Amino acid sequence: MTKPADAMVITPHPDDAEFGVAGTVARWTSEGKDVIYVVCTNGDKGTSDPNVKPADLAEIREKEQLAAATILGVREVIFLRHPDQGLEDTPEFRKEIVRLIRIYRPETVVTADLYRRRLWHRDHRITSRVTLDAIFPYARDYLSYPDLVEEGLQPHKVKEVLLWGAEEPNHRIDITATFDRKIAALFCHVSQVDSNPSSGWEQRLRERHAMLADGQDYELAESFYRMEILW
After folding, report:
1. 119 pLDDT exceeds 70?
2. Coil vs helix vs strand at 116
3. 231: which of 44, 53, 74, 208 is 20 to 30 A away, CA to CA?
């Protein structure tokens, strides 16, 4: 039987989790918690370079994600390898997520926020919608997937959901001590992020996370919309 995880991060693309939740993940793993990553797409369209072949980019981004996860202390990275910009809310995708929730039995699931207004990457919306549906009611209910029960995958009730990128967050986590690890993990995504100090990436992120900690008794925060599942 697979060892249960404390938290599962379900991310649309390689690098999204590093932007959204890496400081929190580093904090959790430093506290001894087990974290699993599920990467839904292969990121094969994430470039402005017309000379890069999609298959090559997907391979590069997978290696980048593994390197970032190692820095953060993530126990395991699961790649679903759906095409970038190709996610759809299908029964098959939902069942993939339900299966993983039942295998790893996390208490906390983290994913992108569904409810951002105006511009928001479609893969983020679909990932969030499918993940939330998978959590409730499909992973929880015994009769949702009798074939999974026959495989030995019993229903599982997730206790907490955190959505990153929320426009109206209700929960903040102190990442002051783990911000440097967040940055190091983010800079593993060489195909996506310019780590040269002159690019200003680190300073902009520090300013953003300082803003998210405004009014708190710590310097830097990641923010989420938190839902506790009581039923």
Report:
1. no
2. coil
3. 74
